[in-house]
Specification:
Order of helices and strands: HHEHEEHEEHEE
Helix content: 40-55%
Distance between the termini: 60 Å
Largest sheet: 5 strands, mixed
Oligomer: single chain
Strand content: 15-25%
Strand order of the largest sheet: 2-4-5-7-6
Number of strands: 7
Shape: globular
Length: 234
């Protein structure tokens, strides 16, 4: 039922977003009205994103088949996350340190979505700013991507719940952080389907570190190492 409702809500939301975006650019509209229209547009976009995330979680739960996997340079994924993140402000000092040959094997769109989610969380839960680092390095079998911040941190009793659907970190004022608690749930599903795992270290008042550990090749085998049958080795 929820899945069907989400699909049905997409059509009117697309209309609301589209027409409000057109009205924002109308020169004859007074500035106070333009401000109100911009609020309508932003809220419609947030609701659309919520629906898309819900449908993504649903899709990943139902369809476990993976397609469009390729070898991806991690530096590109980190740079894209920095550019597309909407929650990072000028007072967030974002630094990227990536091993030159760091690669991952997976779906470009999904992995970009995960890294962007972690970066947005780092900015969202660092309301006073501070340093945020995106680092990556590779070993023989896996690639490690870490997003570290100096924000409010996560209480130890909440660490096991942060990947639960609709769970939100209690910051005392939910209006300042936004979100509905689907981002980390979706990230966990994506990384799990890529054969990887997520590790979290955090201390209240000192910040958090989210680490993605992804295999270079999904099944840990190198196609070049597969030997042909004996009758073909001549």
């Amino acid at each position: 039922l929820l899945s069907s409702m989400s699909h049905e809500m997409r059509t009117p939301l697309t209309a609301i977003s589209g027409f409000s975006e057109l009205l924002i650019d109308e020169e004859e509209i007074p500035e106070p009205h333009r401000h109100h229209i911009n609020i309508i547009y932003q809220e419609a976009e947030k609701l659309t994103e919520l629906i898309n995330r819900f449908l993504d979680v649903r899709r990943l739960k139902v369809d476990r088949a993976r397609i469009d996997y390729e070898s991806l340079p991690v530096s590109r994924l980190l740079e894209k996350a920095q550019v597309t993140s909407r929650d990072c402000k000028k007072f967030h000092a974002i630094k990227i340190e990536c091993q030159t040959d760091a690669h991952v094997y997976g779906n470009r769109k999904e992995l970009s979505q995960v890294i962007t989610q972690f970066l947005e969380n780092a900015c969202r839960y660092s309301p006073k700013g501070g340093n945020i680092s995106l680092t990556a390095r590779s070993t023989a079998l896996e690639t490690e991507i870490c997003v570290t911040d100096e924000g409010i941190g996560i209480p130890s009793h909440e660490l096991k719940s942060i990947f639960t659907p609709f769970h939100r970190l209690d910051t005392g004022d939910t209006r300042t952080t936004g979100g509905v608690g689907l981002g980390l749930c979706l990230a966990k599903e994506i990384i799990s389907l890529h054969g990887g795992r997520i590790e979290v270290k955090s201390s209240p008042g000192e910040g958090s570190a989210f680490t993605l550990l992804l295999p270079k090749i999904a099944d840990h085998t190198n196609p070049l190492d597969i030997q042909p049958p004996k009758d073909e080795q001549s």
